[in-house]
Specification:
This protein has 268 residues and is mainly alpha-helical. The chain folds into two domains: 84 residues, Winged helix-like DNA-binding domain superfamily/Winged helix DNA-binding domain (Arc Repressor Mutant, subunit A, Orthogonal Bundle); 160 residues, GntR ligand-binding domain-like (Four Helix Bundle (Hemerythrin (Met), subunit A)). The chain is 67% helix and 4% strand. The protein has twelve helices and three strands; from the N terminus they run ααβααββαααααααα. A three-stranded antiparallel beta sheet has the order 1-3-2. Helix 3 packs across helix 4, helix 5 packs antiparallel against helix 10 and helix 9 runs antiparallel to helix 10. The protein starts with a helix and ends with a helix.
């Protein structure tokens, strides 16, 4: 595919996600489809800060001061303080008494735990989705598979990386939603957001073609109502994600120390 055509696709996709309400007024990705015009001041501040955190614009260990943030958004301290308190509950930031807030540092064990949790949650979700997903949802999933860059290499351009990452997350969220279990879908969305922050901070997506292939295989398994195959595919897919993320953060030795996430089929 010509480079100009690929770039045009990204521009169209960027306009699409803005139209769907997936970019906030500051141009950051948002994890909700609720129009920002209907949000409270606290929710607007929370949304913007959360997406700065997910996008890696606020890095681990960076200090945040309530007063400066209030000035940045042109609001009072009260909604800013409330938004920060919510982010503390979410685990994105930590409160340092008499100093302010700082972005939660990356903890290797926490990353490993979140990836294992994602395997458990998404494994259950695809099994449910195989029996409940609709034809319209399958078609929508196919529409979230973006083209491979023309040179076949990794995505390094920031806008393209965010577009791919967002499409990938939307794919996994849609599969989770197709499970018909709202609590499960919410739990998957939360862990996706937490891991996306690390992906955007520390490495570019290594193979969009491989990701697209995995997603197409999963769509086919869901179309065939093959729950066992769908679970095997998602566990394999997330196992690769795990190895690459841990390797990008701490090298191959960290991957070995962390131990393997064993697919359920292999464990039987």
């Amino acid at each position: 595919m010509p480079l100009t055509r690929t770039n045009n696709i990204f521009k169209i996709y960027h306009k699409y996600i803005r139209w769907r309400g997936l970019l906030n007024p500051w141009g950051m990705m948002v994890a909700t489809r609720i129009p920002l015009s209907g949000l409270s001041i606290k929710a607007r501040v929370y949304d913007s800060l959360k997406n700065d955190l997910i996008a890696g614009k606020l890095r681990p260990g960076e200090f945040l001061q309530e007063k400066k943030l209030a000035e940045r958004f042109g609001v009072s301290k009260t909604p800013t303080r409330e938004a920060l308190a919510e982010l503390v509950k979410d685990g994105f930031i930590q409160l340092i008494p008499r100093k302010g807030y700082w972005v939660t540092p990356v903890d290797p064990q926490d990353v490993k735990d979140k990836i294992e949790l994602r395997v458990i949650l998404e494994g259950a979700a695809v099994e449910l989705a195989a029996n409940r997903i609709s034809a319209a949802e399958l078609e929508a999933l196919e529409g979230l598979i973006l083209p491979q860059p023309p040179d076949g290499g990794p995505v390094v351009d920031r806008e393209q990386l965010e577009a791919y990452s967002h499409a990938n997350n939307e794919f996994h969220r849609m599969v989770a939603s197709a499970s018909g279990n709202l609590s499960l879908a919410k739990a998957i969305t939360k862990v996706l957001e937490e891991l996306t922050r690390l992906i955007l901070l520390y490495y570019s997506l290594p193979s969009i073609e491989e990701t697209a292939h995995d997603h197409l295989e999963l769509i086919e398994a869901l179309r065939r109502r093959d729950a066992k195959r769908a679970r095997t595919l998602i566990e394999r897919h997330l196992g690769v994600t795990r190895e690459r993320l841990l390797g990008a953060l701490w090298g191959e030795t960290a991957v070995a120390r962390a131990g393997a996430v064993v697919p359920a089929e292999a464990a039987r």
